[in-house]
Design goal:
42% of the residues lie in helices and 24% in strands. The chain is α+β, with helices and mostly antiparallel strands and 318 residues long. Strand 1 and strand 2 form a beta hairpin.
């Protein structure tokens, strides 16, 4: 009787401070405490009889689950992070310890999971990662994230002869003048509006950190923006897209009580077998952009090998 009383006390302590979920050997939930049920937006009784897979957030590969199951089948304890989905479809992260419960034949008959909610911690970590990869003013990918995506495009082009991409390097005229005459707040508004127009015109979706397909727009600092067009059918299609983009900036920006006109000089570099790193493509697109500035601004130029030499130490001030 005393042992039973102690066991009940232990259960109260665990149920108060941790989430508990018990499944049978095929993953059907046979018990869940209130904290676990609340986290997934359910009740303990509603969870009983459901497959654990029904609340899995699908964040891990089959290999991850297979390795976990192999460990548990051997009677060993597993510890790690799992992610479940609540009733609203939101992901909830759990720091979990799973203990296999065996019968007298040493066969695993139940899996006892005890965990704590670490969703807030994971969100904070994601925010830190996002801050390291994003331009804080515009929310666009910064140089780090943009070059990572461009490196992926280069590797794909090396594997696939039919895949092509283009990189645009854009430098906006009159930005310094806006900053000096209207103030940095208006200058910041201009940069945000430029970022929005670029993303809209190129139909870029840069909300996903792991995006590896589609167009992407980034900001390197100041009034320097870059764009990855991926894939492009051919060079002419990329040039046509850049011309449409250039034309879109003929429209004046309305920034509070101010109207500002700012157009880009655009340099274009196309995918090529000799490119081995993102910075090489960016360098060439940048050189082409300087040629566009020399040509009178508000225009575009396609990179050619002689531009690197001509754009050396005599690059004009922006």
């Amino acid at each position: 009787e005393e042992a039973l009383h102690q066991l009940n006390c232990y259960q109260v302590v665990v149920d108060t401070h941790a989430m508990v979920c018990v499944t049978d050997d095929v993953g059907t939930i046979v018990r869940a405490n209130g904290k676990f049920a609340t986290m997934v937006g359910s009740t303990p009784n509603e969870l009983i009889g459901k497959s654990y897979a029904s609340i899995d957030a699908r964040r891990f590969t089959r290999t991850f689950w297979d390795e976990m199951k192999d460990l548990l089948r051997r009677g060993e304890i597993w510890h790690g992070e799992v992610c479940v989905r609540d009733r609203n479809g939101l992901s909830r992260w759990i720091d979990t310890t799973i203990v296999p419960y065996t019968d007298i034949r040493q066969q695993v008959v139940q899996l006892i999971s005890v965990g704590t909610d670490i969703t807030a911690k994971k969100r904070y970590e994601a925010e830190l990662v996002n801050a390291a990869r994003r331009d804080q003013l515009t929310g666009l990918p910064n140089r780090f994230l943009f070059t990572a995506r461009l490196d992926h495009a280069i590797r794909r082009a090396q594997r696939d002869d039919e895949y092509r991409f283009a990189v645009l390097f854009l430098d906006f005229d009159r930005f310094k003048e806006v900053n000096d005459t209207l103030g940095h707040d208006v200058g910041d508004l201009l940069l945000q509006e430029i970022a929005g127009r670029l993303s809209n015109e190129l139909e870029a979706d840069d909300s996903v950190e792991t995006q590896i397909e589609g167009n992407s727009v980034g900001r390197f600092g100041g009034d320097e923006f870059v764009a990855l067009l991926s894939p492009v059918t051919d060079d002419l299609a990329a040039i046509a897209a850049a011309e449409r983009l250039l034309a879109s900036f003929s429209e004046t920006f309305r920034l509070g009580s101010h109207e500002v006109h700012s157009t880009p000089s655009i340099g274009i570099a196309f995918s090529d077998a000799h490119y081995g790193a993102a910075e090489e493509v960016i360098r060439d697109a940048d050189a082409a952009m300087y040629e566009a500035k020399r040509a009178g601004k508000a225009c575009l130029r396609v990179y050619s090998p002689d531009m690197i030499i001509s754009a050396g130490p005599e690059m004009p001030a922006r």
